[in-house]
Every structure is written in C-alpha cells, then in structure tokens.
Hints:
The complex is a heterodimer.
Chain A: E1 4-9, H1 18-21, E2 30-31, E3 35-36, H2 38-47, E4 52-56, H3 62-68, E5 82-86, H4 100-105, H5 108-113, E6 118-123, E7 126-128, H6 132-142, E8 146-154, E9 162-166, E10 172-177, E11 184-195, H7 196-209, H8 214-224, E12 230-234, E13 239-241, H9 245-254, H10 258-265, E14 280-282, E15 287-289, E16 291-293, E17 298-299, E18 302-304, E19 307-308, E20 313-314, E21 319-321, E22 324-325, E23 330-331, E24 336-338, E25 340-342, E26 347-348, E27 353-355, E28 362-364
Parallel strand pairs in A: 1-4, 1-6, 4-5, 8-12, 14-17, 15-18, 16-19, 17-20, 18-21, 19-22, 20-23, 21-24, 22-25, 23-26, 24-27, 25-28
Antiparallel strand pairs in A: 2-3, 6-11, 7-13, 8-11, 9-10, 9-11
Chain B: E1 7-12, E2 33-34, E3 38-39, H1 42-50, E4 55-59, H2 65-71, E5 85-89, H3 104-109, H4 112-117, E6 122-127, E7 130-132, H5 136-146, E8 150-156, E9 166-170, E10 176-181, E11 190-199, H6 200-212, H7 220-230, E12 235-239, E13 244-246, H8 250-258, E14 286-288, E15 291-293, E16 295-297, E17 302-303, E18 306-308, E19 311-314, E20 317-318, E21 323-325, E22 328-331, E23 334-335, E24 340-342, E25 344-346, E26 351-352, E27 357-358, H9 362-365, E28 376-378, E29 383-384, E30 389-390, E31 395-396
Parallel strand pairs in B: 1-4, 1-6, 4-5, 8-12, 14-17, 15-18, 16-19, 17-20, 18-21, 19-22, 20-23, 21-24, 22-25, 23-26, 24-27, 25-28, 26-29, 27-30, 28-31
Antiparallel strand pairs in B: 2-3, 6-11, 7-13, 8-11, 9-10
Amino acid sequence: xxxxxxxxxxxxxxxxxxxxxxxxxxxxxxxxxxxxxxxxxxxxxxxxxxxxxxxxxxxxxxxxxxxxxxxxxxxxxxxxxxxxxxxxxxxxxxxxxxxxxxxxxxxxxxxxxxxxxxxxxxxxxxxxxxxxxxxxxxxxxxxxxxxxxxxxxxxxxxxxxxxxxxxxxxxxxxxxxxxxxxxxxxxxxxxxxxxxxxxxxxxxxxxxxxxxxxxxxxxxxxxxxxxxxxxxxxxxxxxxxxxxxxxxxxxxxxxxxxxxxxxxxxxxxxxxxxxxxxxxxxxxxxxxxxxxxxxxxxxxxxxxxxxxxxxxxxxxxxxxxxxxxxxxxxxxxxxxxxxxxxxxxxxxxxxxxxxxxxxxxxxxxxxxxx
Amino acid sequence: xxxxxxxxxxxxxxxxxxxxxxxxxxxxxxxxxxxxxxxxxxxxxxxxxxxxxxxxxxxxxxxxxxxxxxxxxxxxxxxxxxxxxxxxxxxxxxxxxxxxxxxxxxxxxxxxxxxxxxxxxxxxxxxxxxxxxxxxxxxxxxxxxxxxxxxxxxxxxxxxxxxxxxxxxxxxxxxxxxxxxxxxxxxxxxxxxxxxxxxxxxxxxxxxxxxxxxxxxxxxxxxxxxxxxxxxxxxxxxxxxxxxxxxxxxxxxxxxxxxxxxxxxxxxxxxxxxxxxxxxxxxxxxxxxxxxxxxxxxxxxxxxxxxxxxxxxxxxxxxxxxxxxxxxxxxxxxxxxxxxxxxxxxxxxxxxxxxxxxxxxxxxxxxxxxxxxxxxxxxxxxxxxxxxxxxxxxxxxxxx
Lengths: 370, 400
C-alpha cells in the first residue's frame, strides 16, 4: 500500500450521545462487551497497514488516553510513527475548535512532519470494517482529489449529516446537507482519503478564506463548481453509527446476531486495551440465553439478550433482559431489569425493578447507586 | 551509576512433565493451559511482580517454542524493563564445554553470570509447575530476619502423601535439622514447595561446590540442600498457608481446574488484590445461548450446547446439543453437534466431531485405575471424527 497516515477525530460527534459522553469523548464510549468505539477505526487502520495514527482530542479525553496508553495494544508503540495524541492546539486568541476544519488546523504541524503520501481521516463514532488500502487504490485509479466513503442505508438521522449522488464513474454530482427527502441514500460516513499535501493545502486555503465548515464550504462548492475531483467509495457490509442512545443500544444488540458478530469480529481482529480479568463464572443458578458475557463476570441469576462488559456481577434470582451493563456493574439479588443501559461502576441494589423500552432505554449514569 | 537488584528470581521451566503425557508432547509443562485463559507459568510470574520482584530468569530447555512465544518481552506481567524484566535463559554453547541443563542446580549454575549482572543479595528459585498465589516478599523478610543461608517454603500435606515430596524436619524455631527427598517413611508432614531463597554468595558457593562433586545429580533437593545442611549452614523453613497445588499429573491438573469453580472457590482468580496476569488473546466476549452451570467460560467462546462443572478456555465452540461435563477444554476447541464429553481434559486446537463420545460419566470413570485415574485426555491438535468415541481413561494423541 502507498504510505499512509491515519487521523482519527475522537471527539467530533460527542453531542449526539450526551448520556455516554458526559464523562468521556465519543471514541472512548464502551462498546460490545470489551471495546471502545475508537477501536474499530483504529483497528481498521492497523489492519490496513497504517503505522502512524494521529488521534485528535478535544475535551474529557482522560478515559481515551487511559484506553489508548502508548498504543501498544494496537502495535502502535513505535519509534517511527505509531500512535500520537493531538490535543487541542490553538493561538492565544482562539478557543477550543468547533468544526472539523478547525480541528484539522490544529493537526497541521503533525501532518507536515509526516512523510506519508496519503492521509485517511475517520471519525470514531461508527462500527465498520474497511481496508483503507482498497480506498486508496480506488482514489489513485480515479485520480481523485478527495475520496469520500459512503454507506447505502435509509436516512434516519435527525442531526447533521451529508448524503450525495455519484455518476457512473463514482464522481460526486450532487451533495446535500441534512436533506429533507428520506429513503435509501448514499450516506457519507465521515471517512475520507486524500493526498497529504493536498489536504494541507486545502486546510491552508480554508484558513485564509475563513471557512469553518468542511461540508458547506468545501464539499458543496467543490461539487457545484466541479473544481474538486470528489469521488465516492462504497462501504459494503455492516455499518452502525452511534448517533443516539437508541442507536447505541441497537448496534450493541446487533452483535447478538451471529452473522453480524462474525462480520465485526471475524476475519480480522479488533484490537483493544487488554485487561487481566478472570474468565466468566457461571454458578448453578445461572440461566443465560443469547448474550455476550465478558471475562470477569459472575452470573448467579438469569440473563437474556444482554451485553455484559467485564466484571459485571448478577446476583441470585435477578432477571436481566435486553440490557447493556458496562464494566463492573453490580446487580443485587432478585432485581428485575429490562432495557437498561447502565454505565460503568454502577450498583443496583437488591430487589430493584428498572425498565425502559426498545425506543427509550433506561439509562443509568456512571458510578450510580440505585 | 552502579545499579543492582536486591532479589532476582530464577524460574525453572525446563521440565518435560512426562506425567502429563499427551499434554506435554509438544510444549513445556509451564506452558500448559490452566483455568480457561491462563498458562501455568502465569502464576509464578504474577507472584513475582505482585511481590515486587521485577527481574526473572526463565530457564527453558524442553520444547520451548510455545513458552518463549508466550512470555515474549514480558509485557503482560509488566516485566518489560530497561533494567531487569523477564529473560529467557536457554542452554548455550560455550568454548570449553557445552551441555544441556543436567539438573535443577546445574541449570542455575550455568546462569551464574546472568544473576551476577544484577549483583543481587538474594536469589529466589522457583519452579514453573505450581498453582498458587504467594507474596515472596514476606518470605524474603523472614529470610532476612533469620539471617539464613537458605530459606525453604513449605506447607503441611497429609502424611500419607508426604513421601511424594521433599520433607523438612524442623526445630521449634523453624530451623531445619534434616532434609529428606521423597522419604519412604516421612518423619514429618512439612513438604518443601520447591521455592527457595538463597543469600546470593552462599548460592554461588554451593553451586560451584556441587559442580565439582563427582557423581552429583546436580539437583537442589537431592544434592545442594543436604550438602549445605551438612556443612552447618543456617537453613530455615518458611510456612506457607493457602492454596498450593502441584499440577504435574493429569488428575491433579483436572482437580486444580475444578478448584476454581463455585461462588467461594478453593482458589479464587477474581482477587482484586492479587491479580493473575496473562497474555490475553484478542477475542470478543463469550456468546452464550445454551445452558451453562457451575463453570468458567473465557472470552471468544461460542456456547450453544450444555456446559456443566467445566472450565472452557478461549475461543471454544460448543455446538447445539453437545454436552461437556466435569471437563477442561483448554482453548480453540470445536465440539460439534450432539458430541458428549465427560470427565476429560481436551488440549488446545482439538475438534470433536458430531455425535462423538469422549470419556465416561465421572461417577463411573473415577473408579478406574491407570495412569490418568479414569480421566480421558485428547492431545493438542487432534480431530475425533463424527460419531467417533474415546473410552474413559484413554490418552489420545492421534486423530481417531
């Protein structure tokens, strides 16, 4: 593969899931029993042969730093390149970055030092598997300026999103921001490829012209005026965007389906920080159906259609159905839980009954005592 | 700057472990899987780091590939250090003489130069085939207090089993007046655990002496320790209380795995104050759809069958209708539809075909005599064909 550097926005869509990002950045939202969402973008990069990755942070990135550490678990603890955290960087007059362009501006000194020909940019609020070297091959074939990766699905979002159309060559011929029309569209998934030098010029130009929206000020005019060669690359297979608590709930539950589980975890590893928890323990009273159970769990009650993270304890006689319980949750005896999403380290005392529903899971904040 | 380590640990990991039969055909005993996601060597290595000992020499000889790969640079145990850390010490070719490690003492003798690099005051000698949690620092403090040349960790065992061990006969103050290696008629039930702390100078001295003694078997228990005692060196016992198990036989290995089960197990792996570290594989959480009772299941497993009183390692697939009872599945094992596994130890990478029958129910099998006392053993990497069967107590290392 052509030499490539990766850039991950770890914090750009935090406001979509305020419940989960109150104490952390989007990238470090726990997912799938033992992962953080950034693991997917990061593992995609590593599995594509990328060995230099800059992670742009914004605020509340303690848990992200704790998770990433030196990058060792992704084989990114390197003398040459490796994992580099890019905390906000601004002139005295400015505040924290607001948009994607401003965030990239803070990363220009990092990008200038990189000798790699290409750069891959990805957000860290999505679950997907993609070999970026295929995108770069496509990019080279099309002689594109920017290649935007899209996934075809029904538009469901209520917040900021971009859809586009392409001609038969794959070149963008129309682009919409928050279109009113619904139905199946080519949804831009905020993953793009460009030459490093091209991206640097683009950022420089944007700063000079006072642009601040990548979509409105660069992509839309680029398509309209045909002065940028913008191409769309189709992502096949599973894609989940965590843009609300319900989306978070649903995409976790997707992992209980065998075909999706095999697609997400099979073939190529998803790397993550390794913890030394003991194997999961099931007692004589355990009844478990259709659930993901992580190391460190102790199950004495009934668990159905659940994702249990590391170290979750389910007491005797407790019945837990359709729940996502994050690391070190403690559920007392004879509790009854349905459609609950409980953040890390919470304690649910004996005999409690808690229920949400499919469209509105009941959320318990980190470290709560109920 | 002169740098030194107060205490260096030397871990004897070269043994073949012949009483584990097929389980150690291709790997050294310390690399044998244990407790669903561990290998035996995780226990002494974790003990070291939990005791503040960060310099460990691992002496390998027999089938070291899996063990060396597993230890790697020692990072999973926080033993990747710029000064100290874990080091694999294999036998080497020398200008004057080249030899394999002849005995436990000779293995340490051949690595005196390694120990001297760290200029230690004390050397801790460990073996790589025991399951236990122990704070070696407490033992080291006791060693310093008594001013002994050598301190031997020991624990009480049932008198009828005492003849399997090295037995210490001690004075009331804990000092040792007699050392008997596997005595036919033991005088006490205080068994050596194969854990020694030596004052470094004394260790070097007696290793040199042992090396020059013709006819010596170069073994700590048989040669070095008795010679030291005879020479009037101060030797003390250190009593350990807690769980300790030699997993050198098929039945003790199965038993130790079973000791992990239950809400209050005999040996607790869920101990936040004493974490056992391991090289954890990258697997998603276990998917459980079937029935799992009184068992351990590690990440990456996919359980759609029935698991009772068993330990299921990483990445095991147990298909619908399959039943695993009173058994240990080590890792990367596929048990196909309707297969029955009873009272067995199944090594890594094994495939058990649909409807196959492995072993007999524990109630019947455990009455059998023989090498494995009724436990059925399937060796690494084999395949049992659909509908195949393996009788109770058999050891299989080829496809059936």
